[in-house]
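Final paragraph of the annual report: two paired records, presented back to back.
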Amino acid sequence: MTAQARVQRRRFRLPLFRSWLGLLVELAPPSGDQATTVTNTQNYRLSRSGQITLGLTIALLAFLLYHQSLAANQQLSQRFAFCRPLQSVEPAQIESEQQTMSMINNLASATPGQKLRLRQQYKLLLLDSDRLCGLGYLYRSQEDALMTVATSAISLLSLTFAMGLAHGVVNNTNRTLQAVQVSAIGLLVVPMLFLQLGEQQRDTSIYLQLYLAHRHLIQQLKSAVANQDLPILSADSSQAHQTDQSDVPRLTDAGKVAELIRRIDQQLQSLPPVPISLNDTTVKHVYGWLSNSWKQEISK
């Protein structure tokens, strides 16, 4: 019974496989040399459905490559984190934040409203710093993943062009090479458009600069509360330590605390905004080029 069942399964699968193969492959018309000679061999080529299937398969593989590369880059960024604390350091980070909040609450020269405002500023700086760090990770990982797909696409495109030299680069009739070339061109253009639209390279550096500025302000706020003095705050670390410590006024009254709060607000307002705009210059150029090519084809 087992042998008969296997034979029946094979008989059932064979016509199904042939039907699928018939949709993907078709007989190729004879070339000029084959038309003059009688031969029993038959040449096959991809059908239009086979070309579409091959292109969709390559696109799916590229999407999987992008997804796996993005996940790997995010794990690598978390492993070698420069701004977010590792899991082993998180308890110490939480304890440091609690100590800073306690120092703010114990600031004798500050009024209850000023203590509330200092706590709000400290929490805001921590929250914005964490958000900027996450955006930096995301943009860097996405940039690396898109560049991986683009590099694979240009390698595949170069390989198909090299293989197509025997058939002719312009008048290439090999449908397999045509499908691979069109898919590779699409996979090369799409990541480049995403990189240009999102401006990953420019925005990633801006996120890093904003994160460093927030981190410097956090450290200066902690030092000001711990030492109970009024330093000249700066978002740049190189300028933050140029003040002579003997000339730094003390936080002896509510007026000095108010000045500290105003300086923190001024530094936050002077920081550049988080970039969220899209650059559509390349898309307009590509659309214009395609439109002109299409109009020229129609006018012929």
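The closing record of the year follows.
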Amino acid sequence: MNRRRATILLHWFSFMSLMLLLAGGPIPALGWAFATSALMMTGIAIARGLMSGPGPKLEGWLRHAHPWLSRGMYALLAFSAGLTIAYLLGWGTAGIRLSDLYFVLMSVASLHGIFHLWRHTALGDGAFRRMTPKALHGLL
């Protein structure tokens, strides 16, 4: 499996498992699935660099902020995964409620999705094509 395919799979698996965690709480199997996929995706980004780029049509301060916003999203994802693992191992969460953290992560992920929807439609730069499986490209 290549880097792109692995990142796409882990991206959507992390998102789906995060939604389920929000709905049902840190169920052990679900928590481990989320944490594993999130850390694998973060590991790929650390080892091989970010796949996302600002694209040629994104200009101004958003172009300069884009890589830092991506790094911030990865940091929040890794932090959420790490805290989920700490909870599952019985180490505690340093006073942070996982439900609150999952809500923050989902809120940031929603803004991330809205931003890429805007890029895909307003700028026409194909931002959604980067993270959707090729089978869905005909719908975009």
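Residues 8 and 131 are 5 Å apart (CA to CA). This concludes the annual technical report; the extension proposal builds directly on these records.
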